[in-house]
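re: that chain from earlier
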Amino acid sequence: MKYKDSFEGAICIVLLLANDRYPQKISSNEISELMQSSNAYTKKILANLVRENVIASDTGKGGGYYLIKNTDDISLLDIYYAIEGKTKNYHPKHLADNFLEGASDIRSGEEEVASFMEKAEQAYLQRLNSYKISQLIRAHRPERSHT
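^ sequence. v structure.
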């Protein structure tokens, strides 16, 4: 499966906004600087995350982007949908119709492949939905020594 590069960027932006080392609201310029990416690229990702209600923004002094959900309530699926959309990835085009006689007989095979791909995609989406941003944060937070 191929992902847009912005999927990784969107995950990083959400992690950045969840990081308590930064202010609660961060401007797109600050996010671009921290991620070392262009402001146009960052703004495109931010707009997608806002559209899918993963983050929000305030304008004016003290404004910026911020999380609107707890990290326990944001899954990788939320971010995936923001970047990739919600359309199915596999769409049979019935190409065999162009060169095979009786290609309609092949349709049952195409339907079998389409069914398999749909089940695989559903399993993938369920897996993304099961992984929350809070898990990613906990997995990469250094343990504090208890001395």
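Helices lie at 5-18, 28-35, 39-51, 76-84, 107-130, 133-139.
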